[in-house]
Design goal:
4-stranded antiparallel β-sheet; homotetramer; about 60% helix; about 450 residues; alpha+beta; voltage-gated channel (chains A, B, C, D)
Chain lengths: ~450, ~450, ~450, ~450
């Protein structure tokens, strides 16, 4: 990170020195050389940093292979961008400001590629917001473009023989005597006016050289502006996609309800379920979990549901194996308040265990008046009689508040129990102890 | 909503006062204080408004927790933006127009964050069109940006010692004597000219301070323009996606038909089916329903199809349970006019019940001349003999007008009937009573 | 379509008359009235045109309901836009050029909504290219915007008391004497310069009224430009999506091959298969077909494959029913030249019938030298012995040229044959007659 | 490729000659004719180049059909663009610079369509980066647009009677005497200033003709800019989609872990698995392979896994057939270091074979302290006892470094073994020889 500050400093100072400073002040010369020495140290260190082989995805830490890889790829650029050309130029010319050596010192801009790779890493780091990381990157690129072209455009004017026939001289005739700040701001002002295509026209190219530079700069601007807009569009599309999906789903459900004249309570259940699903981002998380291998999913299920399931009366005394295998096949769903989980008379295909929230047992057909028969709280199970004894559901089950409920498919339950004989008798004994009445009914079936 | 009007008023008047009014008129001063008092009341009310906990999704209405949450988040900003700095400034300076106090009164712009959260809520509300809500938001942002920068740019010129060397003074030399309206329109004109990057150049920065502000404003404009375009692109892509999907599907079908030289009537059936599916948005609604939990889907199916299915002759006298369980497994499809629902000789896998529309029974192979054998209307069933007796379909069934037809998979029908023995005999008796001839044929099988 | 030309004419002439013509020439007055009368006739006709009810998707042709719907929706606008205000104005003022009546005649622009609905219809018509339809629409909108604002801006200058203080008068002092063409071109030139945000600045607002109009126009331009770019992006994304998908798939396959060092001939088979699949747009068409109801898919399969399958030796003498049911379950695939269809020793799960192209039977393991054993042409079947007698595939089957091959799952084949006892014996007899050697082998199994 | 250079040369020189050169120098005249002759040769060659029929996807090499197709499509354009109008014009006028013949020579621009088809081909070639190919195309289009309009705009000024009233004459009064380079740069400078909508205004239209051209050019620019931005957006969206998907998946997993307070080691396993999956692009490659026909997938599986599987002790001595059939059903997964492959007590559904990497066998429940029981390396198999003897997994299996593991579903294994009786006994004998203890246990089951 400290190196990044140096990179930014040197990439900013480099074109500035190039354009505005005829004679380098001693302080700046010193700072430049100190910065350079830091980069020299960094080059030396690179020979000892392991890298990941892109083919086998393994870490390589052999010094020889590291050296071979570095020397054959970026070493030459790094070395050139650190070599102190300017210091050497003192031995040749008196002022060290000959154009050739100045151009060589522009090689330091190569260092900017480090900033590029920093941003590439930041973009993949979820601790930073993608939108702002990306914006910061684009802003840096724009800022550097404005700075570079401003400096370069000033240099063209500065070296033109007739000051009146330059873009700045046409407005400020004796601009060379003006102080540095005014000249720099004017150059940046022209640069940004051109880059944003505002083009007031108060400062414009006067001679062929300036026109040529302006032509190239405008071509570059066209590409840069398009790139900026493209990136912003990308970010906006990405940022609003959730809201759009939610709206589309909600609207489709709402239209379906109004077109088919569904009763008010069914429509409300539909819409509140959709709202909840989007609020909890259930879909996205479910998709992520589905992509994981089985062992990890089992670990997760064990952590989350084992403590709840082992306390359920049905599995009291059952072996660790049975509960573990059942838990790995369970699915957790959220239900908003006042939603039906099972309807009366439905054919049951799942067993339900309440993780949190409260639930009412309701008797009566949905359309007529309803009668609350009881309530269930976290840790209780429902649907077990229906599933284990093949009886259609005798009650409607409805949530009273936000509830998280585990679901286990009856086919999975049967298969797992069948493979663990001893557990099967334990489970059935538990069932009959708690629900003595259904004992007979169930056995006859 | 009333508060929103006040927010917009205060965010508009605030920079305007700041830039154009040296001495605040008494009426405005009064209005400002009244508006401020409304916001003070609002701050007090916030202490009594419940909020939803972002972790557990539960409503919190304990006054203590509300207070802690508010005091630790936004209270300090709200308080600062409501504190009457300007009134206090009267005690210190005579005119109350010192720059410091004016800057403090800019804190009122903090109130704008309320508009942001209003729009965020509106975007999720399907009663409002997404396109226009989003456009209104972007337009507000642009308008405020233009207003702010116009005011600020005027203030720079107004406070510059030499009026001739300012952006407005270069064009209107004695601009300070001009009336307020002309000065305001000119400032806004410059601001919008720069924001849209038109940049006529008739008004442009003249001194370094103006250039600096212009540089920052143009950077901001670049980002804003990109953001506007990004949003518009997003909206356009979203808005046209249905048409595009329709075109792609239609074209793929059309190309398939022409490449394989399909007969005219088959091609027409294909294309009209695709048109109908897109017109009724069947796909989107089906997807929405598939995402709902089973109990809600059962409720919907019961509301929609129970009254129709219970009147079908096949299920006369059957138990509520049986019909309810069948209904929850049914699927509704739309068929355009003149489309074949079943072809003669096809192996049947579904039972069909007509909800609306009219249908012809046709005998003969498709390629030769056809012969209408009968017609079926809403409430009638077809395919029942084929499914229950395993006979290949003896007739082609073709719609004559737009028809909605329920489909029930034969596997589901068998499973459900098998679990309800008594109903099975009722259903078979109904079948043989209505179709006496097939009795023998079916039994031998 | 004829009406569309009139609409475009009247929407172009309307602001032109408004701005540039103080006294309406007689010819134009006549043409205007003729055009108006056409629209009056169209209004009358609308009362007799049936419409589709948006709820039930049925055509409504009751004159009363049509009238009620039209009168309650668009009639009032249509009537106002056709009412000859200009003709009436002659009775009041002498020249018929009072501003009020001119503004009323702007109501004719309402007619433009017809162009909008025309384009909406064209976009859904696959005979027209989506890209160009959309471009034409956007171009029309831009053209009208440029024309309108050009006319309006000229009118502001024309009515301003001091000609020198207007945008056009500052450049052409006595512009009112110039000919119409020059004035119109100048106005359009200013308009397009502003709309595209070029903003040369040679023509710019001079007084407050012009500035105000310019402010509104630039706001509009911002929205329009964003809308244009959004649309273009949408079209580009849509247009290049196929190429991108192709590249991604191809690259993934290519990388997979090079990373795993797959032999050359396997890689070539992979890549040429992917190329062919994209060239024939197999995927898109398959998706379209999958969305169609079963009866249509059966019709298509019958048209395409029945003539081929009934000639296959295996099904000689089999009933229409059997072949029809098999045909509806078949899938057609394209294979590029030199691709393996089945490998030697593979466990067979499908029966293959060649529709077109030529195929080699090859003996030997893939890695060693191969030996051509025979060839198969269109109408021949392979894999039948393996599927019907459960023998692993004795030969590799490889295409020599582009081949279309039907595939039938063995499970489907068995199920269909089992339900048609008589056909089963015919099929087995055919098999043993042609392949006498395998008779014994197969029966013992 | 050589022809492409000629095409670019002639499309660049053509408008340049047209606008700037009154009298064509002899050298250029010669070069023009040489270039023309190359194109004439190319036309002749086209008659002998085979083409692919767009309907049947077959190569057509009949000379007659090629000729018919070419003559009926593009021949007339190619011929016109190659016909030496300029040479002929010498016979009529003395200088060969009459406007008519110059316009005819503009027909050469037709040749540009070749560049279009070259780019279309390059875009589909994965050896070239899509981003840069597309950028190169857009840059060429922009460059040509700038060149054409610059030349044309200069020509308008050049032919205008009053040099002072032209866009260039207003700035450089005696521009016709200036050297070619200055005039060309100025024209290009104006052109690019307008195209990028910078519009400084130092050069602007002065007469109606110039205004008209400028109007058309600005309309074109609007479309071109929108097209450029659209393309750039498309490229950016395409280029960042992988990073975005990765971030979304990673974030969803991370949020899920923190919300459910998963233990640290489970969260780490989840996240490192997701990282690895994206690094190896597993998903994209898996999707590609799934789209290939079965024979190719079998070939790939054989190349990759046969040498490993045949050395596994379980399949020592088994027939080629058995191993081949098993190999074609195997799936390869990557596991990051320290990830659990199977948990203790899990019900096994797969057999695993290690391709590369090292694996630990761990005893003990995950939550308590663990005990390393052994290690497995490449070529070893695990889970075989559990799968073949139906015993729940006795150990946790965890990777120590990046491992590639083959997975075979137990159902597939049983089916394949059942169909090869002799192999079944070999496999079971191998199993018991290596694991003598489990012999009894397994047999009793």
């Amino acid at each position: 990170m400290f190196l990044m500050v140096l990179v930014l400093y040197s990439s900013w100072i480099c074109p500035f020195e190039f354009a505005f400073l005829h004679y380098l002040p001693t302080t700046m010369f010193l700072v430049d050389n100190i910065v350079n020495s830091f980069f020299a140290i960094d080059i030396a260190l690179t020979f000892f940093v392991a890298f990941v082989d892109p083919k086998s995805y393994l870490l390589v830490d052999e010094p020889k292979r590291i050296a071979v890889r570095y020397l054959s790829t970026w070493f030459i650029f790094d070395a050139c961008s650190t070599f102190p050309f300017q210091t050497i130029s003192f031995f040749f010319s008196r002022h060290g400001n000959s154009l050739g050596f100045k151009l060589l010192s522009m090689l330091r801009l190569w260092r900017l590629h480090r900033v590029g790779s920093l941003f590439a890493r930041l973009e993949k780091d979820i601790r930073f917001n993608y939108f702002w990381t990306r914006c910061a990157k684009l802003f840096s690129v724009t800022l550097l473009a404005v700075h570079f072209s401003g400096c370069f455009y000033y240099m063209i004017a500065d070296r033109y023989p007739d000051p009146k026939r330059t873009w700045i001289g046409a407005v400020i005739p004796n601009f060379r005597e003006d102080n540095l700040w005014i000249r720099y701001v004017t150059a940046i002002y022209w640069s940004i006016t051109t880059l944003t295509t505002t083009g007031y026209g108060d400062l414009h190219a006067e001679n062929t050289g300036e026109m040529l530079f302006d032509i190239f700069y405008m071509f570059f601007n066209l590409a840069l502006t398009a790139y900026l807009i493209g990136n912003m569009t990308n970010l906006v599309v990405h940022g609003t996609s959730r809201t759009k999906t939610f709206r589309d789903t909600f609207q489709a459900a709402s239209e379906f309800a109004s077109r088919n004249k569904l009763p008010r309570h069914v429509e409300e259940q539909m819409l509140s379920h959709i709202c909840l699903r989007f609020k909890t981002e259930e879909l996205k998380q479910q998709e992520t979990l589905d992509g994981l291998p089985k062992a990890i999913r089992s670990s997760i299920a064990e952590c989350l549901f084992y403590p709840i399931v082992e306390k359920v009366y049905l599995f009291q005394g059952a072996s660790f194996n049975l509960i573990f295998q059942l838990v790995t096949e369970m699915q957790a769903d959220y239900f908003p308040p006042k939603e039906d989980v099972i309807l009366q008379n439905e054919a049951l295909t799942d067993l339900y265990i309440i993780v949190s929230g409260q639930i009412f047992i309701i008797k009566g057909l949905i359309i007529y008046n309803l009668q609350v028969q009881g309530r269930l709280i976290a840790g209780e199970v429902f649907g077990e009689i229906g599933v284990l004894c093949h009886i259609p559901q005798p009650f409607t089950i409805r949530t009273t508040e936000l509830a998280q409920i585990l679901r286990l498919q009856s086919a999975v339950l049967f298969n797992t129990i069948r493979e663990n004989r001893q557990d099967a008798t334990i489970v059935m004994r538990n069932l009959f102890q708690v629900n003595p009445i259904i004992d007979q009914h169930c056995l006859t079936k």
